[in-house]
Write a structure and sequence with these properties.
The structure is a single chain. The chain is of the alpha/beta class and about 375 residues long. It folds into 2 domains: about 160 residues, 3-Layer(aba) Sandwich (Rossmann fold); about 160 residues, Rossmann fold (3-Layer(aba) Sandwich). It is about 35% helix and about 20% strand. The protein has 10 helices and 14 strands. The strands form 3 sheets. Strands 2-1-3-4-5-13 form a 6-stranded parallel beta sheet, sandwiched between helices. Strand 1, helix 1 and strand 2 form a beta-alpha-beta unit. It is globular and about 60 Å long.
């Protein structure tokens, strides 16, 4: 590859809803330089509003938060053909800063970072380029005026998933593990633990959570969001201890869990509805959805409309009340889940929205 990544606009690229694992872009980039976006093409020339994205290390087809953020870009473009969209892939964390820096020189009007690990690099880039609109998913703005943070009270939806897992489990043991020990990951695990605890209180049970101790804020991690073998290893360990419902919060690494499920355990997916974004719907009980797609689409669309005027840096926070987070449909498991359990989950959702129940996590956005 050359010394500089060529950023090319993207025309009509659609993230595959069902993709073979061998086709994932998670392992597509072998060289050390930033990866290119696919050829695409878009609304024309110099009058286009250029919205550019930098992925986290999972790649554009991680079936998780990179993919759902890119879907938000596509949605914004579908609504406004004057928006020119493109992305650059990060295959390692040391590419965040150069990728963001390079985009500033590509006449991008809006630059989207994806993932909590990109916080420092995004703040540095925004400070160096105060007239460019930046945005970041799963992190704050460091009080930087030109960064629009898109964050989620994910613990609310994960609470419902924990209750579901406890109610569905036959072994009395459920499990979870993360990609890295960072707030956008542990927030899922905290909510999951609290949901299981609530089920135990309501039903007088003692369903155990393996893989995460909320009180100690310590648990099981693959230490990346890419390696499917590591995901398989963690879920095998949890299943070996008796877990029959497992929630991987590990991006593409979680595909290793889904691929190995079935008779051993079922999966609760995260970020984007796994039945729409992976080939493993038959083993996915539900998904803790973080609606990055709509949050990002709205931000890009508003920024394009007021081109030249920065978005307010108060940002967006997704909750159960505004559908920024949710528990996905049960899809192929719908008939296998007791009607009373479904009703209890709906009641808990209403109680969280009304404020009767407060679900908290040390990792939740302020």
């Amino acid at each position: 590859m050359g010394e500089e990544t060529v950023l090319r606009p993207v025309r009509g690229m659609k993230i595959a809803a069902v993709a073979a694992v061998s086709g994932l872009a998670l392992v597509a980039a072998a060289c050390s330089k930033p990866a290119e976006s696919p050829t695409s093409g878009s609304s024309s020339g110099g009058t286009a509003y250029k919205a550019c994205m930098v992925t986290d290390t999972g790649g554009i087809d991680d079936h998780s938060f990179n993919a759902s953020t890119w879907a938000g870009f596509q949605k914004a473009k579908s609504a406004n053909s004057a928006i020119d969209i493109s992305y650059v892939s990060s295959t390692s964390m040391d590419q965040y800063a150069p990728n963001l820096s390079n985009l500033a020189g590509k006449s991008c009007n809006y630059i989207q970072s994806v993932g909590g690990l990109m916080g420092d690099a995004t703040v540095a880039a925004a400070k160096a380029n105060p007239k460019i609109q930046y945005s970041i998913v799963d992190n704050g703005n460091g009080d930087q005026a030109n960064i629009f943070p898109i964050q989620f009270q994910t613990q609310q939806a994960a609470y419902l998933a924990g209750y579901l897992a406890a109610g569905y489990s036959k072994s009395g043991k459920v499990g979870t593990y993360g990609g890295m020990k960072i707030p956008p990951v542990t927030i899922f695990m905290d909510g999951f633990v609290d949901g299981v605890k609530k089920y135990n209180e309501v039903h007088g049970k003692n369903v155990q959570v393996l893989g995460w101790d909320k009180d100690k804020q310590d648990g099981l991690f693959t230490n990346d969001f890419v390696k499917q073998d590591a995901g398989k290893q963690k879920s095998d360990a949890l299943a070996g201890q008796g877990a029959d419902v497992i929630m991987p919060v590990a991006g593409g690494a979680g595909l290793g869990t889904a691929a190995n499920a079935g008779s051993k355990y079922v999966v609760i997916w995260v970020d984007a509805d796994g039945c729409n974004t992976t080939q493993y719907c038959s083993v996915i009980l539900s998904t803790v959805v973080k609606n990055s797609t709509d949050g990002v689409a709205d931000a890009v669309s508003k920024a394009a409309t007021q081109n030249g005027t920065l978005l307010t840096n108060t940002g967006f926070q997704g909750t159960l009340a505004n559908n920024g987070v949710s528990l996905a449909p049960y899809h192929e498991f719908d008939s296998k889940i007791d009607a009373a359990l479904k009703a209890e989950i709906e009641g808990l959702k209403a109680d969280i929205i009304s404020g009767k129940i407060t679900v908290s996590s040390p990792a939740q956005p302020k």
